[in-house]
Request: fold
Amino acid sequence: MPGPVQSIERAAAILRLLARGSGRLGVGEIATSLGLAKGTAHGILRTLQGVGFVEQDRASGKYQLGATLLHLGTSYLDVNDLRSRAINWADALAARSGEAVRIGTPLDGKVLVVHHVFRPDDSLQTLDVGSLLPLHATALGKVLLAYDADVASQLKDDDLAWFTRRTLVTAEALSRSVARVRELGWAAEVEEFATGLASIAAPIRGYGGLVVGAISIAGAVERVCPVARRADPGLVAFVQNAARAISRDLGAGRW
Amino acid sequence: MAAQYVMSIDQGTGSTRAILFDQGGRLVSVAQREHRQHYPKPGWVEHDAMEIWRNVEHVARESLHRVGAGADQVAAIGIANQRETSVLWDRRTGMPIGRAVVWQDTRTDELVARFAERPDAALVPERTGLPLATYFSAPRIRWLLDRVPGLFERAERGDVLFGTMESWVVWNLTGGPDGGVHVTDVTNASRTLLMDLRTLRWDRELLDFFGVPAAMLPEIRSCAEVYGTASRAVPGVRIAAALGDQQAALFGQCCFSRGEAKCTYGTGGFLLLNTGESPVRSSHGLLTTVGYRIGSQPAAYALEGSIAVTGALVQWFRDNLGLISSAPEIETLARTVEDNGGCYIVPAFSGLYAPHWRSGARGVIVGLTSYITKGHLARAVLEATGWQTREVVDAMNADSGLELNTLKVDGGMTADNLLMQFVADVLAAAVVRPMIAETVSLGAAYAAGLAVGYWPDLEGLRRNWHRAAQWLPAMDPARRESEYANWRRAVERTFDWVQPNPGSSAR
Reply:
């Protein structure tokens, strides 16, 4: 087993130093306090700044702990917060696509519907916020499986219940489908949950790029997949754009 | 049709926004800029009208820039605005005289008390449908005229002009000192205390009562007609609508028929009910106001009930008690328990508005026992908004003789499913949220689009309105009644906690 990594030890020492006292120090003060060369301290500070663990005050040039570090232990995103931040983008997606929109987060091996916008045709529809959907038979679920190892590990083989003749009920088929989602950056499900219906979903990323949920449109298979049972590229773009817009609002940065 | 968009300018209390809408009523582009709030003395709130005009110019151009569109692609502009905020300016230079006095400003409370003591003071509610209060514009005009020597004479000559924010924006868009059109619309004029609610004209006796010269007032026009053509910011575009923000939301929610109502849930709540072609007098503390008027068609009137504290109670729970870290988390916390555990919060932070009008009331938390957790308090916070809505709806039903069966909602709190379900439960009415959340801007755009034929008629607009969500009542009627009785007993406990200051208004 290799020994401790010196630069990580030094970075930890810098963070401890910034966490006490007034909390704002110049690179010289930091280097002196820890007995480091100024160039070494500067390099570590720049790296820590890059990942958001420290911030530099523009006027004074001094460093302090970054907001990312403060949120490190609470990266969990409240589902009601997620809905509140996503609501305008979800409405716009429903208006553009003409289909019902759902936002899902993982809960105990299922997809929890945290937001639902009706299909804009004023037909009778019921809010299904709070209901649970299967991970393996929905586009929302496949996105969560693709980007959250924790979710994927919770899914057991006997969870792969049969809904239609197209439902992916073997671990192998599901794993192939999920790998494809990672390749494409979005998921589709065509009559795998209910006959006649299809859905398209894309990941919603939170702070630091972690996937915190997924947004989908769902509707009649002939509208969502009009040609050769393939998801309509225009609709895919709408879903991806909405997911990116929400992710940006959640602070996902370059995603 | 060459023109692809309608532009809406929402000149609000905190910021100014320009939004472009397409023919389907879908939002295409948004630009927004905040302006400074000035608090020179306790109770005073002011805005710099020049800063606001510069922001209007900026956001109007920016909204076009964002989609690479030119002014020639805009069919018309509609304006929605913060209501009752008043500004005076010099017709020749275009410069404001002092800052705009904002609707929250209470500097006129002593002046209002003196007006209220006059034997002919009953004229005001009778003609305007509004109580004599600091909230409205006329006492502000008088205060401003009294403050600067010689201003009254200049106003009498028409050298100094008055306007609420839509007048200021239209005057500037149409050229300002160089041929600016000085107009207002019936909804904004209905909040000045100077317009007769029936004739929709400035009322000679009201002008005399407040001592306001007619020459300084804008011409009252309908909400949807071409007032003029912009020569600045978006040259060549017709300016074709103006409505106060809450009336714009009523219009944007397509409440075009008698009996249709909307509630906007922000820091406070504003519930407006369309009462049709004749004004309904309230005997339950509601305001009677103009809902909208399209061109030369008859005006649609509205009853308005305002709730002082709705979202502000959630903010208080977050910022002052620190029990949640973001407003939406109130729902998460409230869902940790099944019910309120017998606890009720009445947020009479600065008295109670409609239908109680108790300025001496202060907030209470009642029903505390050792059983109560922060989850129960969170429930009580959300339920307070539901019950206050119920009280206003009850007052509206009683005044109008109508029975509300659907409430259209908008505003930030509509993201809270638990609250929306509770509102449906306590009203025993369906609660529906439209797909476009920006109902204020949409209402102004709709009115402007109608005026220039971009949209054919109200039915065409209705076809653009889509339900995004609906909550249906599910509460057992017996439980609804017993909970409402508890709430009313809690409300009674807020009354007369402080004695009202002598001379302050009911608000």
Q: What stands out?
A: The mean pLDDT of chain B is 92. The longest helix of chain B spans residues 374-400. DSSP finds 16 helices and 23 strands in chain B. The longest strand of chain B covers residues 27-34.
